[in-house]
Amino acid sequence: MATDGRTALLVERLADRYAFRTLLGEGGAGTVYEVENLSLGRLEALKILTNPFTDPDGQERFAVEARIAASLEHPHIVRIHAFGQDGGIPWYSMQLVDGPSLAVILDGGATLDGPMAAQVAVPVLEALAFSHAHGVIHRDIKPANILFDAAGTPFLADFGIAKAVENPMDTRTGHMLGTPAYVAPEQALGEAVDARSDLYSLGVTLYRALAGQLPFRSDQVLQTLLLRLQEDPPSLAAACPGLHPALAAVIMRSMARDRNRRWAGAAEMREAFLAACAEAGMAWNRPLAVAGDFPLRRRSLPEVAPTADLPRAKGRPWWILGLAAAAAAAALMPFLRAPKAPPRAEAPRTAPAPAAAPPEPEPRPRARPAAAEVLPRRPVTYPRLLGDGLAPAPAGECAGLSVGAALVVGEDGLVKSCRILSDVKPACAQAARAVALKYRFSPALDAQGRPVEASVAIAVDFQEAR
Asked: Is 197 strand, coil or helix?
């Protein structure tokens, strides 16, 4: 059982309460172990959070959040048994769920059909309705946080206790709360979240489970976040032709960019799900057959995936500033668009066979443009930086900064324009722009494999002062 020095110290301090048995997962958010509660003789999961307390109020924030989360007693919420901190290191123990996470199922190449998605969504929505009614927003709904026991019953895990130990004034790190691929637009902008933010993340989770892919895809974190601010998600009905339209509509509404256009709450979305299931004639109240349909492996907690480490400038993190600037300047910085298709010529009609006084053909109604006739509005690939980039910008007063920038990359891979997104001194912005304009990229490609002009987000890193 490998541990770092800090974790090893905590394990030693907890040795009179817990016997540490197995390492279940580790990553940017923390490390999870299967433990035995020595006083109760019960197997539990114990999570040691990565971030130590960084301010005098950290312990109190953590205690408040942990007490609230521990008060959530619901059949589909993983129960928190105990929590504490030793040497400033926060930890908590919880119910051990003996089955795979939804992430394990999806990462194995499986997708869910409509009934399976309903069997996951309805219990999770019940759990969210309960937690929201108690004032608790999850903040990180994703496949890794939906667990199944051996019977296939879903549980929602990992409520936002980690939020309590994140110092909002600490600008030395860029850990983003929530997973970029699943967070709501307002969460990506650093705005206040509410119940509708959780519904957005659940919608993205269900989209991936049904379609086998995320609605917004990019290998760059900021690009992924910018896409959801600029564009509506692609149609789930088009991605899953066999899915009942009513079910697709419920999920698509949960992913509206404007939170006021989403479902008002988890209870309302649950009722809409049940109505869609009734319309489709599908059952939703059977456990997912994980033991028979998917590989079952012991899992207590969602696999702890590293959070996105994004560099911050002084003040608010640059990715929040960048997203806000991109949202405000959408008209000036349109996201990449494929060239519009020329109008399609009307297919020649077959003349009717000669006959006496053939009837005049009725005028054809103006047909709606078929979805297949519209070229994709997004490219298939995004610009990629060639090589390792240029030498870092000179340091000076900008030493140690990472400056976010949005570039317009032409079809030839050359940078056509640069807009600085970070709130930095003019001299630092000018130096970063000068370097960024010299970058070279492989261009974005549209669905036909043709180069297209595109926007891409980057960070220009200044050297540390020596």
From this structure: helix
